[in-house]
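Ticket 4471: requesting a sanity check on a complex prediction with adenosine-5'-diphosphate. Repro inputs:
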Amino acid sequence: MAIISSSSKENNNNSPNPASKSPKSKEKPPQEKSLLTPEATTDEKITEADTKPEQSIRPQNLEDYIGQKALKELLHIAIAAAKSRKSPLDHLLFYGSAGLGKTSLALIIAAEMGVQCKITSAPALERPRDVAGLLVSLQPGDILFIDEIHRLPKVTEEILYSAMEDYRLDVTIGKGTAARIRSVSLSKFTLIGATTRIGALSSPLRDRFGFIQHLRFYEIDELTKIVTRTAKLLETVIDEDGATEIARRARGTPRIANRLFKRVRDYTQVKANGEITGSIANDALELFNVDPRGLDWIDRKLLTMMIENFGGGPVGLDTMAASTGEDTQTIEEVYEPYLLQIGYLNRTPRGRLVTPAAYRHLGFSVMHQKDVV
Ligand code: ADP
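Returned structure tokens:
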């Protein structure tokens, strides 16, 4: 399976399209050429990154992929059915918080289907020609993975409609009365979209996906297995307590579990004899300011501010952002989902409320709470 990525860095520039420098570029009108040139958007960054040892912790097949049992079962059936029909998989949309394994699943699906996976992200597809270039470069059965798909600009999104439904690319060439539409047939491909905000997706786009699947937060025992697997791959000795200690603080998220594991591994190499135990993991994570429920100082600052300044709420998102110096999107997409999941925050029509559990966790008396649901 080949992986090709396209990044916003390459596409956000004003530098000339490398393809337009070639003598061949004169054969077609410039706009048409630029719209249909795959070289405009692809590079090999993820291919390189994924071969680095640290990246090899990404699960390579459905068996390696821990947790999300129901979703794996569904994918297993869909993949087997598509393979027996010798047709590409239906388009898939994965939604859930960052780091829950959406990209990993797309790569696993490509590997299981034996096809190429092209990875890109909506911010890299600012101009219609970015997505058009990628689409025409797809081979039959290939997977196109678009991360943060809710951030696609409208013009780019509209190109995807006919591509997803009829494997056809409609491009408008020229302007005004001279404008004409050219249709280009595309290979039958599978689009896998990933988003942290399903509600921000337009319904025409959402309706074109055959599967819409939610990735949930992971249980502690699942994260313990992920940490143990990562330790094995990175040749580090860890006992069950050490893995559980890291898992408990990983906010239900594999990416965070792996990140915390690496910090604990550093600490253990320097301060201990190299083996990660429960008490060493605990000491290391305290040093890194991650508390036993996985809250970092921004979570604590957010909750403390809500308790001390607003009697626990209700507090609007804008106020939460202003008081912590984070932007509203980060609060909504990074901090809030986990705090809601563990029952430290409640969402109400009037704003967010801190729950008694969060009061107790932070050492405040629940008596001081003004408004608890
Ligand atoms: P997302 O695309 O949802 O942000 P990724 O697929 O990039 O998340 O996953 C982040 C990291 O977490 C991966 O590099 C992988 O190592 C690990 N990971 C995610 N899900 C799993 C899983 N189910 N089992 C094992 N490791 C996982």
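Notes from triage: The pocket of adenosine-5'-diphosphate is lined by residues 57-59, 65-68, 98-104, 194, 226, 254-255, 258 (CB under 6 Å). Leaving this open until the requester confirms.
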